[in-house]
Amino acid sequence: MKTKNIIYSFALASAFLATSCVADEDLNQIDPNFETADSFWENETDALEGVNAVYGSLLTDGSYMRSTPLLLDLKGDGTRSNSPWGAMANVGRFNTSVADASIYGWAFETFYQGVYRANQVLENVPGIDMEDQALKNRILGQAHFLRGLYFFHLVNLFKNVPLPLSSLEIYHEQKTQEEGWAQVISDFEAAAGLLPNNYNNVSGADQGQAGRATKGAALAYLGKAHLFTANFAEAKVAFEAVINSGEYRLVDNYRDNFTMVNENNSESIFEVQFSREAGGVDLGWGGAPASGWGKTSARAITYGPPTFGFTDVQPTRILFDDFHKETTISGEVDPRLDATMFYNKPGGMMLYGVDFATHYGANETYLNDLFVAKYQNSDGSRADEYDWRSGINERIMRYADVLLMYAECLNELGQTTAAYGYIQEVRDRVNLPDLASTKPNMTQQQMRDQIAHERFLEFALEGHRFDDIRRWGWLQDSAKLEWLKSRDPEYNSYVPGREYFPIPQSEMDNNPLVTDQNTGY
């Protein structure tokens, strides 16, 4: 971030000190080469740069550059990891170590970095005299949205966490998860009241800029927070507002949601903006940003198939099989399969300009294995992912998710028949049969199971599956837990409490107001 609080204490000559005319405060001097928080927040340019820095925390290793997708994906039954890096492989095995904060600890730190930056905006921008009040509102709305998003991840992944609403105090007390969700909801509500539907016709320097948070993004996440706390009536209201806004529709080609083609499209409600062209070429591992940092993602190399990437994350055979449970109207395999994973497909499958069977033909293990296709630069323009610099935007809220979450709310509110249409809208894109004809008159429980299946396939390897498993209470349901174990052996090592990550030990050691470690650690 541009703001630096750097104060130098100068050791003065003893003869000067002997004059006894130097007050203690005179020994603290501001380096004139750096701006301080007190001198930075003066005009609308400063305000925009300040909120841009809040977005910056989405781009580093602890967040969506690499760590956050791993933490969200690996505990689901659609993913597995044979990574030689224990901190990564153990995420999906529910065996994260308090002694090694790699990955989860970086995420924890980065989310709070984003919160701190958002707090600075919310504290300082109201005092800036700006002629364009609408621009001021948009800046504050984005800060509320991003703080809500960072808090969402913290509460969802770490359970009982501090909720700092000020950048001035050093220590912040640990809050309950219920208090955490209340703050998340409060931030998204504030954001929804301040943000525009889009930036096409706004006045100001942000006009036409893609990637900024909108009213639809705030409402979608507001609905999601209500859904995660089983407040289905309020979630329904928020999702209805998104649907009725007319701002969003599903793209025709499902795969366009995971490549550089058609980024910021009509289905994308919020996505993290990566680019190979922006910034420098250094990788943004974390901490204070450096001038040479790029704006690229390491997801592609981390998830990439062997000889093209590190293959630290792979789809499970269960996910592959579930894509074959139902054919399209024309009798074909669900087209989302090929957009989700690479495999030895009859008739051939291309990746990085080569045929799968030809490329892996000499290695029987690879030939019969499954590899991630989503978010890979695999269309032939790139030879591999080994420069660590993917420019593919991460779509973290899609309209398809809103439609299926809305259908879930309808079902939970006893409106099961009404849920069919919203599910079918998602199915129609991939030419699946009319659910009302193939499975008419489902009970509420049958519809719950159907929605779980629909979400499993639609959002595979997008960080949703384990969130769903946890919020549906499957880990506390002995029958569901046994079912998960039969699908994914990694669930055999699950112990209660480990659906959440531990509070990093550094936080426990350094913050006297954080005293309760999560159950199971």
From TrEMBL:
Subcellular location: Cell outer membrane
Domain RagB/SusD: 267-521
Superkingdom of origin: Bacteria
Pfam family name, one: SusD-like_3
InterPro entries: SusD-like_N (IPR033985), SusD_RagB_dom (IPR012944), TPR-like_helical_dom_sf (IPR011990)
Alphabetic keyword roster: Cell outer membrane, Membrane, Signal
GO cellular component, one term: cell outer membrane
KW Membrane (keyword) present: yes
Keyword flag Signal: yes
Signal peptide segment: 1-23
SusD-like N-terminal domain location: 99-225
CDD domains with a match to the protein in the record: SusD
Similarity comment text for this entry: Belongs to the SusD family.
The protein's name: RagB/SusD family nutrient uptake outer membrane protein
The organism of origin for this protein: Pseudotamlana carrageenivorans
